[in-house]
Specification:
Elements: H1 3-16, H2 18-38, E1 41-42, E2 45-46, E3 52-58, H3 63-73, E4 78-82, H4 86-94, E5 100-104, H5 108-113, H6 117-120, E6 121-122, E7 127-128, E8 137-141, H7 146-168, H8 175-182, H9 188-195, H10 200-221, H11 227-241, H12 244-258, H13 260-266, H14 271-301, H15 312-333, H16 337-355, H17 366-371, H18 376-389, H19 395-422
Parallel strand pairs: 3-4, 3-5
Antiparallel strand pairs: 1-2, 5-8, 6-7
Helix pairs in contact: 1-14, 2-11, 2-14, 3-7, 7-10, 11-14, 11-18, 12-15, 12-16, 14-15, 15-18, 15-19, 16-18, 18-19
Length: 425
């Protein structure tokens, strides 16, 4: 009898153990679904509370004021609500029906018409000079939402510039000439003397083409996926990977009680075959669990596997090795089912809590982030974060994290093997 026979036997027992399968597969999926729903993200559905609701009062009712509203509507995460009057806006703000309000004044069109490029850009300090008040646009919010008002101010200013720039650049239809004008290398009078009076509609295709080019670049350089599940799926994948520890403990206890572990120890097989035969089934289950959870996140929640999905393979493998190594060590230490419940479960949940499985690691205090590095969970989460949420993953950083996980796996497994060889049962 070799380790393959022991592996096959234990793998069949694990597959038949419905309680273990529920803990390893169905329970993490349920956690991900529940927490995902609490953030309002499921199958592309978004909770209305997750949107930035902006009331809009358009007193100008011009083409360009309408363009500002269209630009705001195109921004993901913003819902614009048309409001008839300023009094109604104040009422909705007080009732918390809207987060903030944008009021476009009657003088918006006339103020835009007299703008020049030099009024928008400060050439000396290389910054924008224009403010919303300069074009008769106001942002209203509740006194307690000052931070929200600041963010909305910048968003609306961006949308306003998209509506205003074609008008200020109407004397140029060539990109280089528009650039010279904005940089102060030429004047409006110089360009008009060469090309005559150009309508804003002549410049609009240029501005649109620049915007489309930028959008293409952004689409090609990023694959954001669903940010909620970019955090939830790896966190609970790591947490439940280490739930193998109590399951392995109970498996060894069952072998001791039935006497099969003692018979295996006196059988004509090496200690290495015995250890491999008892641990490989759990490693296979852990790998299958991680693959299933990531596939589950991709198909049901639309999560991204990152810019380079292949980076997930070593992370999943090293995390499963570390979990299996810890499970082997704990299995050789516990003697009763109550010890598994008291020690193994406590250890797994505590390590998950301090490492950042329950909440993003960035939310942990700095000292806790340092303390968590003593757990394999933290290194796995660091690697997943780098692979799933960054535009250009740092392969060396991921390799370092995987190296630490492999060290954990080798150390814990070695201690487990030593303890198993020196145990009397």
């Amino acid at each position: 009898m070799g380790f393959l026979e022991i592996t096959r036997k234990d793998l069949l027992l694990l597959v038949r153990d419905r309680r273990a399968l529920v803990v390893l597969l169905l329970l993490p999926m349920a956690f991900i679904c529940i927490l995902g729903l609490s953030t309002g993200r499921l199958l592309g559905w978004r909770n209305d509370n997750q949107l930035l609701k902006l009331g809009v009062v358009d007193n100008c009712r011009s083409r360009r004021s309408g363009l500002i509203i269209e630009r705001m509507q195109a921004i993901d995460g913003i819902r614009t609500i048309r409001v008839a009057s300023l009094a109604e806006v104040e009422e909705q703000l007080n009732d918390r029906d809207i987060t903030a309000a944008v009021v476009i004044g009657e003088d918006f069109e006339s103020k835009v018409d007299i703008l020049k490029p030099q009024d928008i850009f400060d050439i000396v300090d290389a910054r924008m000079k224009i403010k919303l008040a300069d074009v008769d646009v106001r942002i209203l919010s509740r006194p307690a939402a000052a931070m929200v008002q600041s963010v909305v101010d910048q968003l609306v200013l961006f949308c306003t510039l998209q509506a205003v720039l074609p008008n200020t650049a109407r004397t140029s239809v060539i990109r280089s000439q528009v650039s010279d004008l904005l940089l102060g290398k030429s004047t409006t009078e110089d360009l008009e003397s060469k090309h005559g009076d150009i309508e804003p509609s002549d410049v609009q295709p240029i501005v649109d083409s620049i915007g489309k080019a930028s959008a293409v670049d952004e689409d090609q350089s990023s694959d954001p996926g669903n940010p909620v599940y970019q955090t939830l799926v790896p966190a609970y994948t790591v947490m439940f990977a280490f739930f193998l520890v109590p399951i392995m403990g109970r498996s060894f206890i069952s072998e001791r009680e039935l006497g099969t572990l003692k018979r295996l120890r006196i059988a004509p097989i090496s200690s290495l075959d015995l250890v491999l035969g008892k641990t490989i089934p759990f490693l296979i289950i852990s790998l299958a669990q991680s693959a299933a959870l990531f596939l589950f996140g991709r198909l049901l929640f639309g999560m991204s596997w990152g810019i380079q999905p292949w980076l997930l393979i070593p992370i999943v493998g090293c995390t499963s090795l570390a979990a299996t190594g810890m499970g082997l060590l704990i299995a050789t230490l516990v003697r009763t089912d109550s010890q598994v419940s008291a020690y193994a479960n406590f250890l797994v949940i505590t390590m998950a809590g301090i490492s950042g499985c329950f909440m993003p690691r960035e939310w942990l205090p700095e000292i806790m982030q340092k303390v968590s590095l003593a757990t394999p969970h933290a290194w796995s989460l660091i690697a997943y974060h780098e692979a799933l949420t960054t535009q250009v993953p740092d392969v060396l950083k991921i390799a370092r994290a995987c190296g630490v996980l492999a060290f954990y796996a080798a150390t814990l497994a070695s201690l487990g093997c030593w303890k198993m060889q020196h145990s009397r049962d």
